[in-house]
Design goal:
N-utilizing Substance Protein B Homolog, Chain A; Rossmann fold; eight-stranded mixed beta sheet; 12 strands; 44% helix
């Protein structure tokens, strides 16, 4: 269910522009301009615009951020935090900046860094109206150092024109579904058709900030002790179920007390349901077929004394699984392998349980990965559905008779969820759909205040 990397996997940094990385004037900038102060809003706007332009060019945000922080090693925490907030906010606002620029420009911009800068500035103008003139001034300062001659004036003109007609601009946004609902039109249409009564609330929830929840390592600490530890460190927390905690204000994970010692992990409350729904018991052989980054494999090992085999096709992601297990003091057989090619990794001994946490559109976690809304297409949903079917068919022979496989996605689309499972059951007469506690043979968690969007279906293999 973890999101497969959308778009083209990049091999370059977010921008090749020297000023965009360092604040120093590039060769095309006015030579007498001084570098941007690293603690200025102009620098934060520059960094954010660079990242948004990178996503606009079809690349995944996580890769862009990795490159950004490498090229901005001396950014103060406040500037980095402001830039990251603007990046995520602008990307969550899919369609809004596009609509505004279409009314403010005579023709689309071909300079990606300036295009990104303008989108970020427009987002900032909307969420921080009290600082409007400062935002315009600082965006113009940034543009002077990252673009060829003439575009500084364009940025100044576009943003001041936006201020003059702001009320009518916002009103016009409400007449565009993409701009008002902040989703691609194909996504809006798909959700509206599937859920005619709740589609608007579903889309609205996907535009909110994601919650932060922690998983308690029950092998090392009790939930009560973990709550006390976090409260003593100044965090506002409350229990979610027996072994999870909701933290009101998200913070960097490394700053949490007990994290380095493996007492707790960051994992969405919805994602934590997988280990609990898989019906684990001591002594079972368990396969986590698409394991990276390792949260669910670790949770299963915390939950029961089971022997886990964890697979991932990417060596770098496999290392992340190993690192997570090491931090928690847990052990599993971790292998770099494609789960669809069982002849390369399976020893022929059937598994009692299989977690099929398959690659998907990640439409249920778009607020956490907002670049998904920019990079996914309707064709991707069908492509993922085909891949998911292949994975299920490949894994089924490795499951023992009487064993159970939990199918999981972080998608809200039926093609990847209920339709996928129904088609699988129709292809396999030895498959029985197991009802959960409420008697329903599937669980669909839509994004909400405490969790992201997930789908679960438990399948038992008959003799």
């Amino acid at each position: 269910m973890r999101p497969s990397r959308p778009g083209t996997r990049p091999s370059t940094s977010p921008s090749r522009n020297t000023a965009a990385r360092t604040g120093r004037p590039s060769q095309t900038a006015t030579p007498e301009l001084s570098p941007l102060p690293v603690d200025s809003l102009a620098m934060a706007l520059t960094v954010a615009g660079d990242a948004v332009g990178y996503v606009r060019n079809g690349h995944a945000l996580n890769d862009g951020l990795t490159a950004l922080w490498r090229h901005y090693p001396d950014l103060p925490p406040a500037t980095r935090g402001a830039a990251q907030d603007m990046i995520y906010g602008t990307l969550r606002d899919y369609g809004r900046g596009e609509f505004m620029l279409s009314r403010l420009l005579q023709q689309p911009l071909t300079e990606p860094t300036i295009d990104g800068l303008l989108r970020v500035a427009l987002h900032r103008l909307e969420v921080r109206a009290d600082t409007a003139h400062t935002v315009v001034d600082q965006a113009v300062e940034a543009s002077a150092r990252i673009a060829r001659g003439g575009l500084k004036g364009l940025v100044n003109g576009v943003l001041r024109n936006a201020l003059r007609q702001w009320d009518s601009l916002i009103a016009a946004c409400e007449g565009s579904e993409e701009a008002s609902l902040r989703h691609p039109q194909w996504w809006i249409d798909k959700v509206r058709k599937a859920a005619p009564e709740t589609w608007q609330s579903q889309l609205a929830a996907a535009n909110t900030h994601p919650p932060m929840s922690l998983r308690i390592n029950r092998r090392k600490i009790t939930t009560a002790a973990a709550l006390d530890l976090l409260k003593a460190d100044g965090h506002d927390v409350r229990a979610l179920g027996d072994y999870a905690v909701h933290i009101t204000r998200p913070v960097p994970v490394a700053s949490l007390p007990g994290f380095a010692d493996g007492l707790l992990s960051v994992q969405d409350w919805g994602a934590q349901q997988a280990a609990m729904l898989l019906d684990l018991h001591d002594g079972q052989r368990v396969l986590d077929a698409c394991a990276a980054p390792g949260g669910k494999a670790a949770h299963m090992l915390e939950f029961a004394d089971v022997a886990v085999t964890a697979l991932d096709a990417d060596p770098a992601r496999t290392r992340r699984v190993e690192e997570q297990l090491a931090r928690l003091g847990l052990s599993a057989s971790v292998k770099t392998a494609n789960c669809r090619q069982s002849e390369t990794w399976w020893d022929g001994q059937p598994f009692d349980r299989i977690l099929a946490d398959v690659p998907c559109s990640a439409s249920g976690v778009a607020r956490r990965h907002p670049d998904i809304k920019w990079l996914r297409t309707s064709a991707d949903v069908a492509r993922f559905a085909t891949q998911q079917a292949e994975i299920l068919d490949a894994l089924w022979p490795t499951l023992a008779v009487g064993g159970k496989m939990l199918y999981v996605t972080c998608s809200i689309f039926a093609e990847e969820n209920s339709l996928q499972v129904s088609r699988f059951a129709a292809r396999h007469p030895d498959c029985r759909r197991v009802a959960f506690g409420d008697g329903v043979p599937e669980a669909h968690w839509l994004p909400g205040p405490e969790h992201d969007g997930f789908y679960f279906a438990l399948l038992e293999k008959l003799g």
